């Protein structure tokens, strides 16, 4: 009998709790939500040592009205090459190439720290370099963004192609 009364009081007490969770406190606008959905990350490993890291967001689904004349990405890249100054290198410096479905980018523009496009990618640190990347349009099928090197290997990030 005592247990029934205690259980009933506990149930009544918890029934008045709010239906909100902890994640309700972290609201994002639609663009940020879509960019998180489009974020893919991969690494090139050699003998359990990280040689390169890439995180990329496919921008076409994030801003479908803006990016219509090609395939657009924001990428964050890290390459392990000793103590070289991160400010003085780019993707080709270390012998890497970046392709989308086997085709090279039509333009790769470095994003400065103050560029508002960088806010879309949740990977923010001092050892990455950030780029705005454009490829020619791909008509159908999935997209495969590949970072590769003849010396260390490759990593592929896959994205579904919207209609």
- Low-confidence sequence ranges: none
CATH structural architecture: Sandwich
Strand order of the largest sheet: 1-2-3-7-6
Record field, number of beta strands: 9
Biggest sheet overview: 5 strands, antiparallel
Q: What oligomerization state is this entry in?
A: single chain
**How widely separated are the two ends?**
63 Å
Q: Label the overall shape.
A: elongated
Please state the structural category: mainly beta
Percent helix, as a range, is 10-25%
Determine the CATH topology.
Immunoglobulin-like
Mean pLDDT: 81
Strand content: 35-45%
- What is the gyration radius calculated from CA atoms? 22 Å
Would you state the CATH class? Mainly Beta
Number of helices: 2
- The count of domains is 1
Please write the string of helix (H) and strand (E) elements: HHEEEEEEEEE
Explain this structure to me?
With 163 residues, this protein is mainly β. It has a single domain, classed as Immunoglobulin-like (Sandwich). It contains 2 helices and 9 strands. The protein has helices spanning 2-15, 30-38, and strands spanning 39-46, 49-58, 71-79, 96-100, 103-104, 107-110, 129-135, 143-149, 153-159. Strands 1-2-3-7-6 form a 5-stranded antiparallel β-sheet. A 4-stranded antiparallel β-sheet has the order 5-4-8-9, with no helix packed on it. Strand 1 and strand 2 (49-58) form a beta hairpin. The longest helix is centred in the first third of the chain and has 14 residues, at 2-15. The N and C termini lie far apart (63 Å).
């Amino acid at each position: 009998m005592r247990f029934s009364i205690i259980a009933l009081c506990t149930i009544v007490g918890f029934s008045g709790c709010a239906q909100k969770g902890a994640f309700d406190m972290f609201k994002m606008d639609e663009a940020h939500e879509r960019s998180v959905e489009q974020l893919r990350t991969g690494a090139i490993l050699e003998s359990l040592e990280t040689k390169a890291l890439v995180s990329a967001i496919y921008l076409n689904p994030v801003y479908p009205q803006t990016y219509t004349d090609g395939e657009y990405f924001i990428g964050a890249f890290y390459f392990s090459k000793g103590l070289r100054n991160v400010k003085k290198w780019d993707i080709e410096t270390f012998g890497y190439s970046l392709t989308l479905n086997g085709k090279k980018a039509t333009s790769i523009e470095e994003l400065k720290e103050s560029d508002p496009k960088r806010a879309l990618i949740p990977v923010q640190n001092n050892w990455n370099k950030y780029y705005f990347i454009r490829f020619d349009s791909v008509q159908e099928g999935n997209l495969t963004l590949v970072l590769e090197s003849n010396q260390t290997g490759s990593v592929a990030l896959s994205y579904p192609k919207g209609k």
